[in-house]
Structure to design on (990 residues):
């Protein structure tokens, strides 16, 4: 767990459904992460340009930039960042491309919150 | 999305080949029966899976709902096909029922379900099935009436169906569609939107009522209870489609107070409410927050205007000091709008909730003016009689009574409440509204949760599955039997060895539920989700770690149970402005499941068990299952056919039960002879258990009971018709597989049916038991039914009686517990054979109950 970590790990969450973002913020703040949520992927990327971040959890299907674009941008800005893409519309091709672009995990909805927590914890371990 | 008609044609088209190959062989019938079971099972699993997604523990999106819908509609259609193939197309009308339900589901997916149903519904008649058309406020109030039985002013809802009718009648639809398009468009033209919405508002304010609507309103008015009022008035309020819209729009939608209870006056008020749907802020919210999604329609709640002696608001925790745990009541004389506006002086009462409700302070202001109903409609400011200026607007008793209502509302809705109340001129307290209390958003409140494990003693961590997310705190109440439910305190944490659907009767009171065994897809879990009761199931050894009265805090989000009250977690829970589980897709799934999962057809013995009464897929599946089983039972009439089928054997027992066994697979061992079998050959798990009970020493008395001629005649006249039409006559039949038994037993004038599935997977397991009898007079019969019901209840079965029919159910249990109950049922079947002429008086019910519980089965010993 990250509970004992001295410096909180910075998590960026992007989902165009505001309530999902809020929910995830609660979950991960409760676990000790520093969480920023965005419903607009472009705004999220602008934030990442200016602020340090460690992990990105992003929805795939969005207006403006989609999850793949977010992945590329996040990796460009911070090559060490871990990006987790969550999607309800998975095809083997997109998954393959995501992994080619260095995605940390590619999660297909529906899944239990627990699974996302585990993925983020793995990402946290990998980035410390 | 595959359009349902396509699936339809494809599969239905394929049906003819099934029929074409249909032979008169029994085996083919059984194969078809198994198909019914299989497709039913597939469909029920999809429903259970969707239900589980509502626990708040999942991330899913619309795609999941659409895919589930496709799989589900296909599975249900397969079941309909399989039943018709089994029954030679006897149920072809079921396709129409299927079409109707499926169409409704598609409308939900397209978010158009607000167009169906009656235009006007009495508030008392609002149920889950018409939730989609009454709006959030009415839905909420209906729950308070139905589940908490708190007094609420009578009224009715003009539904969203009426809204669409009015729009269609007015010819405004094209303009509204255009506005919808503009709102949803990513390119914003604010001026165009503004002009159009104003134009629509203007036109609505000039609309004529469609003729039938006034009749419907008149009909609803006739049903209202106006008691002794000579000029009744109503309040007409908006009831927006989504509850959080009600929440965000307090004040944005119009409310018209003190409207004469006449159809035309009400329509004029309703028109104003309708027009407010096109208010500037509302349109802006829909464009930005809802991004053009969501339904564009509005319902109106028309409630009796209470002529108020006093009124005001109650907060179940102090919004300014959420740590204090005091209930705060603010009020004034007259109508409550004075209090809500904050423009007039008010009285404030604080009630402590620690160790029983106690008034801790009263601040009484000088109240010289208040709002009263005006003779010309609306409200007017009037002077308060001088002797009342400095008197509190509520007596101490009323304050405590009101605080108690507030607590019940908080316990029911699982979060602090903001309640509007009123006292009428007869000094009766009524609830006008209750909603989640908006607390100031506390930033980084989650930070306070980081080291809870060090601050508080942990009772259980990482154990169990979340059936419903949330946080609850209260004294433990251990529930082992149904009797323990009787004295469960308000706000308790219910802890039990397993989950039981019976818990529903206390769910409005408890703050959380924890069970040692159970599954997130059980019936109980479903109800927890409906009512938002935090619930953990499968928490190992929890019973050995807690005791009655011990205060615990259950965090179902992180599967942790703490000793004591964890204030940080409760503050975290209370800080949520709205229910964060309620995302767009979450609400859609819930609406969808409301049209899929409820079971209205429960008991085949009750009149309503008819094809046309199927409202949901679950009803259709239940109907199919019952009819398929009946079809098999009907086969039993033709013994020769059964025996020719080569899968039927006479069961030879030490008792003269005369049972034919029909083995559909794995129910009888292979070394059994061709024409008969014995107990030792039975490999069906539930049937073996049942037979073990039936043949237990002392259970089966061979001495035949003499039924008097009078009793005999009585039974002939009064026996239920389906018992006499020959459907169940003939041999006693057991249809079995390794995990399944469907046993129909007829002894004299008794019919027992046991339908049980018993495997190593608790969630698949169920027992259904039905007893119906005759052969004695009505009084004795009903005594007998009561006795059987008492016995079954003693073993925690869920029992219903209707006349002399007793049905009992139990499900979701471990295999060994199932076997135990089946053994008991076997004993009960033997026991009831003798009861006909013995039930002379009521005292015998208890005597025989005790005898049965003590293993004394011979009732001839007096």
């Amino acid at each position: 767990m990250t509970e004992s970590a001295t410096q909180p790990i910075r998590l960026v969450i992007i989902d165009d459904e505001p309530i999902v973002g809020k929910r995830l913020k609660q979950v991960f703040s409760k676990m000790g992460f520093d969480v920023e949520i965005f419903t607009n992927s472009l705004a999220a990327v602008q934030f990442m340009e200016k602020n340090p971040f460690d992990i990105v959890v992003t929805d795939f299907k969005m207006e403006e930039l989609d999850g793949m674009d977010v992945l590329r941008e996040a990796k460009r800005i911070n090559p060490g960042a871990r990006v987790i893409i969550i999607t309800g519309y998975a095809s083997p091709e997109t998954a393959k491309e995501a992994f080619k672009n260095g995605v940390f995990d590619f999660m297909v909805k529906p899944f239990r919150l627990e699974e996302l927590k585990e993925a983020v914890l793995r990402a946290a371990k990998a980035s410390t | 999305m595959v359009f349902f008609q396509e699936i339809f044609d494809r599969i239905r088209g394929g049906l003819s080949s099934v029929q074409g190959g249909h032979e008169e062989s029994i085996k083919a019938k059984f194969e078809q029966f198994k198909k019914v079971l299989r497709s039913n099972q597939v469909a029920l699993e999809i429903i259970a899976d969707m239900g589980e997604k509502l626990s708040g523990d999942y991330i899913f999106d619309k795609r999941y709902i659409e895919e589930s819908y496709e799989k589900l509609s296909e599975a249900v259609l397969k079941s309909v096909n399989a039943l018709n193939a089994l029954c030679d197309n006897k149920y072809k009308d079921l396709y129409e029922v299927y079409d109707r339900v499926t169409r409704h589901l598609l409308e939900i997916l397209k978010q158009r379900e607000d167009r169906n149903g009656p235009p006007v519904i009495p508030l008392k008649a609002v149920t889950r099935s018409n939730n989609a058309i009454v709006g959030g406020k009415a839905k909420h109030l209906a729950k308070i009436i139905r589940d908490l039985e708190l007094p609420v002013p009578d009224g009715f809802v003009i539904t969203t169906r009426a809204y669409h009718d009015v729009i269609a009648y007015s010819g405004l639809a094209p303009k509204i569609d255009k506005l919808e398009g503009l709102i949803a468009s990513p390119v914003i033209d604010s001026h165009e939107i503004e002009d159009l919405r104003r134009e629509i508002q203007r036109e609505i304010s000039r609309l004529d009522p469609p003729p039938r609507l006034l009749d419907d309103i008149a009909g609803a008015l006739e049903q209202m209870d106006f008691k002794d009022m000579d000029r009744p008035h109503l309040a007409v309020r908006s009831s927006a489609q989504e509850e959080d819209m009600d929440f965000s729009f307090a004040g944005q939608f119009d409310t018209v107070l003190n409207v004469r209870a006449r159809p035309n006056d009400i329509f004029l008020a309703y028109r104003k409410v309708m027009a407010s749907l096109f208010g500037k802020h509302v349109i802006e919210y829909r464009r930005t927050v809802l991004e053009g999604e969501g339904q564009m329609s509005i319902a109106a709640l028309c409630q009796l205007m209470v002529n108020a002696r006093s009124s005001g608001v109650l907060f179940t925790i102090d919004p300014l000091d959420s740590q204090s745990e005091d209930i705060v009541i603010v009020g004034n004389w007259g109508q409550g709008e004075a209090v809500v506006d904050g423009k007039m002086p008010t009285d404030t009462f604080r009630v402590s909730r620690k160790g029983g409700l106690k008034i801790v302070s009263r601040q009484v202001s000088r109240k010289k003016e208040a709002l009263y109903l005006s003779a010309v409609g609306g409200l007017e400011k009037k002077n308060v009689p001088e002797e009342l200026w400095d008197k509190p607007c509520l007596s101490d008793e009323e304050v405590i009574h009101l605080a108690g209502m507030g607590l019940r509302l908080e316990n029911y809705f699982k979060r602090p409440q903001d309640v509007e109340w009123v006292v009428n001129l007869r000094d009766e307290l009524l609830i006008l509204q209750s909603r989640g209390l908006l607390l100031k958003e506390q930033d980084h409140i989650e930070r306070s949760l980081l080291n809870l494990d060090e601050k508080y003693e942990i009772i259980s961590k990482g154990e169990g599955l979340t059936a419903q997310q949330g946080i609850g705190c209260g004294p433990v109440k251990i529930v082992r039997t149904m009797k323990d439910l009787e004295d469960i305190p308000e706000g308790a944490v219910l802890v039990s060895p397993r989950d039981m659907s019976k818990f529903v009767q206390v769910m409005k009171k408890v703050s959380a539920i924890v069970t040692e065994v159970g599954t997130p897809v059980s019936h109980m879990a479903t109800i927890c989700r409906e009512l938002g009761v935090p619930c953990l199931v499968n928490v190992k050894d929890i019973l050995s770690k807690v005791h009655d009265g011990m205060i615990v805090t259950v965090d179902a989000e992180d599967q942790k149970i703490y000793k004591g009250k964890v204030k940080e977690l409760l503050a975290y829970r209370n800080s949520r402005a709205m229910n964060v589980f309620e995302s767009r897709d979450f609400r859609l799934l819930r609406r969808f499941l409301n049209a899929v999962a409820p079971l209205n057809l429960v008991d085949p013995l009750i009149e309503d068990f008819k094809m046309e009464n199927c409202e949901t897929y679950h009803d259709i599946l239940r109907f199919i299952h019952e009819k398929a089983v009946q079809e098999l039972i009907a086969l039993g009439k033709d013994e020769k056919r059964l025996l020719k089928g080569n899968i039927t054997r006479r069961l030879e027992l030490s008792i003269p039960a005369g049972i034919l066994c029909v083995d559909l697979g794995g129910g009888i061992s292979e070394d059994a002879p061709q024409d008969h079998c014995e107990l030792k050959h039975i490999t069906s798990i539930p049937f073996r258990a049942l037979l073990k009970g039936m043949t237990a020493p002392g259970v089966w008395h061979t001495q035949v009971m003499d039924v008097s001629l009078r009793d005999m005649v009585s039974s002939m006249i009064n026996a239920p018709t389906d018992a006499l039409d020959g459907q169940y006559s003939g041999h006693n039949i057991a249809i079995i597989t390794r995990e399944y038994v469907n046993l129909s037993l007829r002894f004299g004038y008794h019919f027992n049916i046991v339908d049980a599935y018993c495997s190593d997977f608790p969630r698949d397991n169920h027992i259904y038991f039905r007893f119906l009898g005759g052969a004695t007079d009505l009084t004795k019969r009903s005594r007998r039914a009561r006795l059987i019901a008492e016995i079954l209840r003693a073993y925690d079965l869920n029992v219903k009686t209707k006349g002399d029919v007793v049905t009992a159910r139990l499900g979701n249990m471990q295999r060994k517990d199932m076997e135990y109950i089946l053994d008991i049922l076997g004993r009960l079947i033997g026991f009831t054979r003798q009861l006909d002429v013995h039930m002379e008086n009521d005292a015998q019910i208890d005597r025989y109950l005790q005898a049965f519980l003590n293993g004394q089965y011979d009732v001839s010993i007096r």
